[in-house]
Each structure stands twice: as C-alpha cells, then as structure tokens.
Amino acid sequence: ASQFYCEHGASEYRCGENGMAALSFLVALEINPNSFEVLQNVGVVFNDLGDYGRAEIAYVLAIQANPKYLLPWLDLGQIYLRRGYYHGGIIAFEQASEIDPNCFDAWQGLGIAYFENMKVGEASKAYRHALKLKSDDIQILEKLTWSLALNFDFDEALEIARRTLDLDPENAEIGQCFASLQNPTTRESLFSNIRLTMWKQFLERQSAR
C-alpha cells in the first residue's frame, strides 16, 4: 500500500501538483513511518512548496532513518545555506562528502558554507575538490579565485583566475580581480580591506540572528 501512494505521489510531483504529492507521500509515511526514501520525498515536496521548516524536519528524519543516505544531507545543507545557518551547512555537506567523496554538489556546498562562515582557507580546499570533479566549472573557478585571494594565496589565485579567463574571456569580475592580483604593491591591502568588510557583514548577520 505504501508503494502505491509513493508512486501516486511521484506522478503528481512530476505533473507539478505538489500539494497533492505531499498528501500522497504523507499517507505513504503513515503506512511506513521508517521509510527514509518516503521521508526524503516529503522533504523535497515541502521544500518546493517553500515550507522549509517542514522540509528540514523531513530531511532530519530521513537521515535518522538512514545516516548513509546522501540526498537528505545535500538538501538539508541547501536549506541551511538559504537560512544563513552556515555552521549547519558545513556539518551537512561534510557528511555528504564523506558518504560520497566524488559528489560535486557536496564539495561545492561545503565551499560555500565555509566561505560564508569566513573560513576562506577551508573554502579553498573544498573548491579544489570540486574542481577535480569538474575542471571547467566557471562558478567553482570564480569562487576558488576569490577564496584564494582573500586568503592571500596570490600565486595560486592568479593561476586560477587565468584559467577562468581562458574559459570565459568576457568575465568582467574575474578580469578585475586578475588585474588586482597582478599588482604586488597594492593587492595585500586591497584584499585585506575586502576581507575586513566581509567580517563586518558576517558579524552584523550573526548579531541579527
């Protein structure tokens, strides 16, 4: 019976009927309350409905039912990023990367969570892992350029910026960053000021929580 409602919910979800899909998955969950796959489906539907609180609960329950199930860790991490709960994002994406070290989304999410939590050195490590999996991903190249520059790893930042511009010559942001990195007399002061501004914004966000 649970499988019937799961299949019905999946069909409704594919048709964009998220409210009906949620109902079908919840009925399936009543029949089989320990199904981590049903809990994940419930989380996905509530997430798409914008009900992030219930989605988070469903993902946590799915993880409790099967801690080695990758998908809820990834989706939970995304919810934490959206909410600005970056420490939770770090935990979720670290778990995802341990479950599947070849999961690009896990390393990308981990890099973002570290960067937003002002751990730019750790962000660089995560982005390097992501880049090994997708060597020509422009967004990762951009993010790695900035995390390296803000950690004063200027030589590697220049190398990554150059790779980015080889793939995307019209990238104005990285072009400007590249020019700044090439000036050894001003770059440390420039990126120190940017990092200081980021710290101020980070502390303001934390005090507002």
Write the layout of secondary structure elements.
Layout: H1 2-14, H2 18-31, H3 36-48, H4 52-65, H5 70-83, H6 86-99, H7 104-116, H8 120-133, H9 138-150, H10 154-167, H11 172-181, H12 187-208
TL;DR?
The chain has 209 residues and is mainly alpha-helical.
What characteristics describe this protein?
single chain, about 210 residues, mainly alpha, about 80% helix, about 0% strand, elongated
What features would you describe in this structure?
There is one protein chain. This protein has 209 residues and is mainly alpha-helical. It has 12 helices and no strands. It is elongated and about 65 Å long.
Q: Low-confidence stretches at least 5 residues in length (pLDDT < 50)?
A: none
User: Would you tell me the overall average pLDDT?
Assistant: 91
**H/E element string?**
HHHHHHHHHHHH
Q: How much helix, percentage-wise, in residues?
A: over 70%
The helix count comes to 12
